[in-house]
Design goal:
It comes from Panicum virgatum. By secondary structure, the chain is of the alpha/beta class. 42% of the residues lie in helices and 13% in strands. The strands form three sheets. The protein has a five-stranded parallel sheet, sandwiched between helices. It has a two-stranded antiparallel sheet with strand order 1-4. The protein has a two-stranded antiparallel ribbon with strand order 2-3. It binds adenosine-5'-diphosphate.
């Protein structure tokens, strides 16, 4: 430990020491590992080990940190989606950053001002609008640990285990803090107790309330609840500052849809005749997940067309064929005809958009 020098001293204290002091970790040359601390996720790569190519790090192992970061060429991002991957929710994103990222990153700010940092927010809106994606983006951009709890799944476990499972989730989140606990379909975990007759449900709701109330301001754990049916939640969950804010993640408008289309086609070679703005206007009722499906359906349509020049049995595909691939207007038009907005499937309220081109 003493041999760690220069700026690496800070890095060692902040990241590596806790990472190694609690566990015996074997390391081999070339290994990459992620260490979280101070709301940052820092990736380390083992460039050399002595005396062998593989070592077990013990308390007296000397660790040297290279001053210069190793450039990462194979991947742009370290972990998960970023803010750039979420479209059409600019206002909501700004609010979530303020409510979730700020307290996770700068707990001192809240301590200094003597205010309690937010403990939770509730996102509501139809499925496929990007609620989970938002949660993941916040977690990866702020380096927080991200746990997803699926409401129906946790409830379907054997009777009596749901509460224990829930407790474990909170314990793990505290241990690995800073953390975001994302509760998808939270209405399944916390249905209105007046309207449910199930004994298990009632107990689980109380357990969740207790766990949320038990989160200490300093623990740096934030709960994000997501639901399609905010009104079927137990009212106690929406009171007493358990969720500091409720945000509507609605169906995107045409500008939002354009943003989302741009995101999902950014790595796609598009032909010149593709007019994303027009598609954005013509996809009324489509949510983010529908637009993602639309883009991949268009790509599949192109692949289907090319099947005569692609030899499935062959190990490689001709570079000229790959370079010639362009998703064009017709592919997207076809995709529009076969992709239905999920709002239509769920409620029947939205008219199927007419393809005008
Ligand atoms: P929800 O949690 O609201 O049901 P998800 O976040 O699971 O929705 O969305 C599923 C997928 O649809 C995402 O992984 C993403 O590919 C796409 N998607 C949904 N909403 C958006 C959005 N606002 N921007 C970009 N992509 C989106």
């Amino acid at each position: 430990e003493d041999s760690v020098a220069g700026i690496s001293g800070d890095l060692f204290e902040a990241y590596l020491k806790p990472y190694f002091s609690n566990y015996l970790r074997p390391l081999c040359r070339g290994d990459c590992f992620m260490v979280r601390g101070n709301m940052l996720a820092v990736e380390f790569k083992v460039v050399a080990t002595e005396p062998a190519d593989c070592v077990l790090v013990a308390p007296d192992t000397a660790i040297f940190c290279a001053d210069e970061p190793v450039k990462r060429e194979d991947e742009e991002r370290l972990d998960g989606p970023g803010y750039d991957d979420v479209g059409g929710v600019r206002k909501q994103l700004a609010q979530i950053r303020e409510l979730v990222e700020l307290p996770l990153r700068h707990p001192k700010l809240f301590q200094t001002l003597g205010v309690k940092p937010p403990k939770g927010i509730l996102l509501y809106g139809p499925p496929g609008t990007g609620k989970t994606l938002l949660g993941r983006a916040i977690a990866s951009e702020s380096g927080a640990h991200f746990v997803v709890v699926n409401g129906p799944e946790i409830m379907s476990k054997m009777a009596g285990e749901s509460e224990a499972n829930l407790r474990r989730v909170f314990e793990d989140a505290e241990r690995l803090a800073p953390s975001i606990i994302f509760m998808d379909e939270i209405d399944a975990i916390a249905p209105n107790r007046d309207k449910t007759h199930g004994e298990v449900e009632r107990r689980v709701v109380s357990q969740l309330l207790t766990l949320m109330d038990g989160l200490r301001p300093r623990t740096q754990v934030v709960v994000i609840g997501a639901t399609n049916r905010p009104n079927s939640l137990d009212p106690a969950l929406r009171r007493f500052g358990r969720f500091d804010r409720e945000l509507d993640i609605g169906v995107p408008d045409d500008i939002g849809r354009l943003e989302i289309l741009r995101i999902h086609s950014k790595d796609m070679p598009l032909a010149d005749d593709v007019d994303l703005e027009r598609i954005g206007k013509d996809t009324h009722g489509f949510v983010g997940a529908d637009l993602a499906a639309l883009c991949s359906e268009a790509a599949f349509q192109l692949i289907r067309e090319k099947m005569d020049v692609i030899d499935v049995e062959d190990e490689t595909i001709d570079v000229d064929v790959l370079n010639s691939l362009r998703v064009c207007n017709d592919h997207l038009k076809h995709a529009m005809e076969v992709t239905k907005p999920s709002a239509l499937r769920e409620t029947g309220l939205v008219e199927v958009p007419k393809v005008s081109w």
